[in-house]
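Review this chain:
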Amino acid sequence: MTQGIDARLEDAQTRIASAASTEDLRAIEREFTGKDGVVASMLAAIPTLPPEERRDAGQSANRLKTAVLEAVATREAELADAALDAEREADGFDSTLPPPRLHRGTLHPVTRVTRELEDLFTSMGYRVLDGPEVELDEYNFEKLNIPADHPARDTQDTFYCDSPGSKATLLLRTHTSPVQVRAMERLEPPFRAIVPGKVFRQETTDASHEHTFHQMEGLVIDKDVSVGHLIGAMKTLLRGIFKKDIEVRLRPGYFPFVEPGFELDARCPFCEDGCSVCKQTTWIELLPCGLVHPNVLEAGGLDPEEWGGFAFGLGLSRLVMLRYGIDDVRHLLGGDMRFLSQF
């Protein structure tokens, strides 16, 4: 058996050393180590051998396979070096030419707008916060004045997570608002903060809805905070985004974690008489906002008689679509390079 292995190995090494191309090497490699090759046949014959010979036969087959693969790798490197040397010696080769330029990527449009907003808000004294995307029901709903029987839960189509053995209910956060309470629990007032990040809702996927999208929460906690402060902050935000003053208006809106609550609309920055972006109304529904509800302040450990504040929730995905004229939200997370390479 050993003599037969040595003869086969010597034959393989000789043929490998004289191989003139990688195609020849691949053929020799398949002949010896392929599923129907020499090594496979040797291993298949082991059960027919006497028990005392099987161990040596298996070791010999593995030794042959290892030696063949090493010889192929060595010859392949020699062929690559020879090809490179031939290319260098060919007419027209210029070693002083620069190498091909590497393809450079670009920032995702959501990342681009998020960084611009972070720069804008930090210049206004806001800090940038983050929070868990897998959230507790307590923070996503309960401490935001949305108890278990509250109808507002039905509008958010929540992804719940199984948590065997745990008394706490886990879910994928449906908004960035849970960080409001976490911020009040951990930060010393007064403070200003924004919270950009992903949120998740079990919504029908179409041009204007997606199960994963981006929001930016804003929170200001201070004394003697009024709706006027809220409007001023929103106008500064829009001026930073669209590079011009934008008229805004407030409409009454109900959100359990603010009181009073508003829908803030912005005058369409793309038209004067109506267009497809504003649906011919000259106004764009931009974001919900309002003064922080006393129950939410108490849930965050603050005395509503001493402290107040305002909060707003900005739809980052929607804002990116407005900024760049994108008509389908699914493009943002679709990973299509034809779309992403435009930015």
